[in-house]
Amino acid sequence: MDDRFQKVERTLISLQSILPNSKPKLAPLVSSEAHCFVAQSIEWIWRLLDQVADQKPTCLLAQPDIIDRWQRRTEHEQAPQKVILGEWKHARKFHCGQVLLAIEKASVACDVIVLHLNFQAPGLIEKNLLTDDFFIQLQRWAARQNKLLLVMAQGEIDQDALHVFMQNIVRRFTSLHFIYQSQPDWRWSVQFWFQGYTLSRWNWDIREYTDAHGAVQLQIVTQDSEVTPTQRLGDKAKRLFCSNALEPGEFLPSDWKRIGAETDFRQHVEPGTDATLIIGMLNRDELIAIATRIFDLRKHAGMYLRILIRARDESLRLQDERFLISAGATLVLPSELSTRRVISLAETTLGFTYTHTLPETFDELKTNRLIDDVKGYLVPLDFVERVKRAQLKAERQGLDTLFIEADVATGLTPLSLIRRFRSRRPGDMITVSHGKLILFFYGCRETDAENVLYMSFGIPAANLFRREARFTRHGQILDACAQLEAEEKHHPSDDLSQAVSRRHDLAPRTPDLHTPAHGPVRKAKYI
Question: Which residue, among 48, 86, 38, has the nearest Cα to 187 in the 3D structure?
Answer without folding.
Answer: 38
